[in-house]
Design goal:
Structural class: mainly alpha
Oligomer: single chain
Keywords: Cell membrane, Membrane, Transmembrane, Transmembrane helix, Transport
Strand content: under 5%
Strand order of the largest sheet: 1-2
Mean pLDDT: 82
CATH architecture: Up-down Bundle
Pfam family, one: AA_permease_2
Shape: globular
Protein name: Y+L amino acid transporter 2
Largest sheet: 2 strands, antiparallel
Radius of gyration: 23 Å
Low-confidence stretches: 1-14
CATH class: Mainly Alpha
Number of helices: 18
Number of domains: 1
Number of strands: 4
CATH superfamily: Amino acid/polyamine transporter I
CATH topology: Amino acid/polyamine transporter I
Membrane topology: Multi-pass membrane protein
Order of helices and strands: EEHHHHHHHHHHHHEHHHHHHE
Subcellular location: Cell membrane
């Protein structure tokens, strides 16, 4: 169904079919992922305290809720696609927006894909090494195979990609239900020995900040909640309601899962093995212990698939805006898949597999990620002053963004003091985008040789991948 518009084209109008209940389900399904099967160890490593870990999980849920409310205002006042990239572009112009997509290209997206792929590797290998740590080379090799296979599937068919996503999404929910029910039953029959002296641990600021990084990684996805507004019934009322209902539910699920882990898995086992759900299964399910690693592996496989799918299209959008090389916007003629973007994303992710330590990777990219989130929320406050008359269907209380920014400031500044090396690397990579921006984007009167060279690369990629250039439906303007 469509309606005629003056130029004779047909405009497709999406029906608002998503109810408040549907919206809550979408939010929960988006956020709950592989993080809850790997992050509990990361939080506990840095706190060494059961009580502090549980408090951090609660605080991560609160912080993510505040962030989701801020992004609800951003997403309904800045309706263009692109997430943080679009918000920063609108508030601060093209250079900061380019730096956001630059760090997404080189740090955030590849590292996220590597983390989830390594989680897949850990859970596939762990059942074969129940009494010791699995070989790290085997974990990395399986992670690489996972990335390459899913990249190939994403290149071949969008339909296959979506089927993988639909099938494997149910695996994570089933695994969590089994873990929570079994763990709570274990507590109710009197096994509380792991909860003795719960507040013993480390409480220095640097360790707490790194523990938050692991916890917040499991809540990843809250900043995409506003994407459902176009199809949500009464969105300006139901979106904040959905956030207030769904985020506490996710937080409760995560806290209950961690209670189950702590009841069954000892502190030493928790600190020595990132595949905590596999250890949990070994302790409780005996010969059926393989069930948990299988479901978690399927869940993480689907997680890698989802990140690959969205990453490639983010870079394609950047290319259409002139902020990325033109070959990123090439799509296969028949399959309509962004093959060059997928291939590049896969290669950069494979380079991240030089380490199999998931928590080092989480710490490496989290600081950069939260810095960009903070800039987006600062942009929201700036637009309230600079453009007070733009429509704001959702406007959060001013206290919410300020509390959120204070928390982000701690998350960014404290690790910069305690771990300056990773901070320096992240800042250097981000700043390296400035000369790239001025040379490749801002500089309009480039010599003919540049255009000849870039044209040759574009034509080569077109022939190699059987792709065509896709124009953006609507260009961004600051």
């Amino acid at each position: 169904m469509g309606e005629e518009i003056p130029n004779g084209d047909t405009k497709v109008v999406l029906k608002r079919k998503i109810t408040l209940f549907n919206g809550v389900g979408i939010i929960i399904g988006t956020i709950i992922g592989s993080g809850i099967f790997i992050s509990p160890t990361g939080v506990f490593i840095y706190t060494e305290s059961v009580a502090a870990s549980l408090i951090i999980w609660l605080a991560c849920g609160l912080l993510s809720t505040l962030g989701a409310l801020c992004y609800a205002e951003l997403g309904t006042s800045i309706t263009r696609s692109g997430g943080d990239y679009a918000y920063i572009y609108t508030a601060f112009g093209p250079l900061p927006a380019f730096l956001r997509i630059w760090i997404a290209l080189l740090i955030i997206r590849p590292t996220t894909q590597a983390i989830v792929a390594l989680t897949f590797g850990h859970y596939v290998v762990k059942p074969f090494f129940p009494e010791c740590d699995p070989p790290q080379d085997a974990v990395k090799l399986l992670a690489a195979v996972c990335l390459c296979v899913l990249t190939a599937i994403n290149c071949i068919s969008v339909r296959w990609t979506m089927r993988i996503q639909d099938v494997f999404t149910s695996s994570k929910l089933l695994a969590l239900v089994i873990i929570i029910i079994a763990g709570l039953y274990y507590i109710f029959i009197g096994h509380t020995e792991n909860f003795q002296k719960p507040f013993e641990g480390k409480y220095d600021a640097g360790s707490i900040a790194l523990a938050f990084y692991s916890g917040l990684f499991a809540f990843g996805g809250w900043n995409y909640l506003n994407f459902v507004t176009e199809e949500l019934q009464d969105p300006y009322k139901n979106l904040p309601r959905a956030i207030w209902i769904a985020m506490p539910m996710v937080t409760i699920i995560y806290v209950m899962a961690n209670l189950a882990y702590f009841a069954v898995v000892s502190k030493m086992e928790m600190m020595s093995n990132p595949a905590v759900a596999a250890v949990f299964g070994d302790r409780l399910f005996g010969s059926w212990s393989w069930v948990i690693p299988v479901f978690v592996a399927l869940s993480t496989f689907g997680g890698v698939n989802g990140v690959l799918f969205t990453s490639a299209r983010l870079f394609a959008t950047g290319a259409q805006e002139g902020h990325m090389p033109a070959f990123f916007s090439l799509f296969h003629i028949e399959r309509q898949t962004p093959i060059p973007s997928l291939f590049f994303t896969c290669v950069i992710s494979l380079l991240m597999l030089t380490t199999s330590n998931v928590f080092d990777l989480i710490n490496y990219f989290s600081q950069t990620l939260w810095l960009s989130v903070g800039v987006s929320v600062v942009g929201m406050l700036w637009l309230r002053r600079a453009k007070p008359n733009i429509p704001r269907p959702i406007k959060v209380n001013i206290i919410i963004p300020y509390v959120f920014l204070i928390a982000i400031g701690c998350l960014v500044i404290i690790p910069a003091i305690t771990n300056p090396r990773d901070t320096g690397i992240g800042i250097a990579i981000m700043l390296s985008g400035i000369p790239v921006y001025y040379l490749c984007v801002k500089w309009k009167n480039k010599p003919e040789s540049y255009h000849v060279f870039s044209g040759c690369i574009l034509r080569f990629m077109q022939r190699l991948c059987s792709c065509v250039y896709v124009e953006a439906a609507e260009k961004m303007t600051s």
